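Researcher: Can you fold this with 9D3 in place?
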Amino acid sequence: MQFDVVSLFPDMINAAAGYGVTGRALERGIVKLSVWNPRDYTQDRHKTVDDRPYGGGPGMLMKYQPLHDAVIDAVQTLKPIAGKTDTKVVYLSPQGKPLTQALLMDASRLTQLVLVAGRYEGVDERFICLDCDEEWSIGDYVISGGELAALVVIDAITRLLPGTLGDEESAQQDSHSDGLLDCPHYTRPETLQDHAVPEVLLSGNHARIARWRMKQALGRTWLRRPDLLEAKLLSVEQQQLLEEFKIEFDIKRCGHEQHN
Ligand code: 9D3
């Protein structure tokens, strides 16, 4: 898969993408990455990429033409495979569709993804209409520009591509616990302060351990992200494990007030 990022801070993209899962996928040739700086596509002596908003107000906007020319170059550089390529141009912004694993899985089928990272107050709206296929957000909080969002997208998609993760991680990815929060994990030592590792994890009984982990995953999802549970249909065994968790949770809460 080819990633192209349009950004005023190319070093930020290239540096961060060189680490970890994305770094390895780049080395292995599973993904390719090019960064296109709109400043290289300016036509004036001062290399102007921004301008003041019509109607007034604070802050600056990214001008249309340097963004447009950068995207054209990014898209044209990919050689069509068998006459065509599947390319999407995405503008990253707080107004975009919120990212989900499902959206990222869809995108992982593309041959080319062009990610446009804005700076300042954003871009001229006509760039979004004329040059972009979609607008994506990474969540309801404010960051200072699209670069970190582009890196999030690249990381999340790269993990989905064959050959990127080790066997263990890949197996974990399509496990039956997906759509749930993870269970707690422990390593040595066996006791920290007065917190012992749950006895079941030392039992060597793998069926019991698997049941405990599923129960914890269900219970924590119920406690912390009930929205995820509502969107998921549970097997009879999972429903039973969750009921057990709720009962045990009630018992532990005895004498800790808050009965509602
Ligand atoms: C604080 C300024 N905001 C109100 C006037 C507008 C604003 C402009 C530009 C807010 C954020 C940004 C920069 N953000 C991104 O480029 C961005 C982003 C984000 O801030 N949150 C979630 N997802 C994304 S994707 C790109």
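Model: Folded with 9D3 in place. The longest helix spans residues 206-224.
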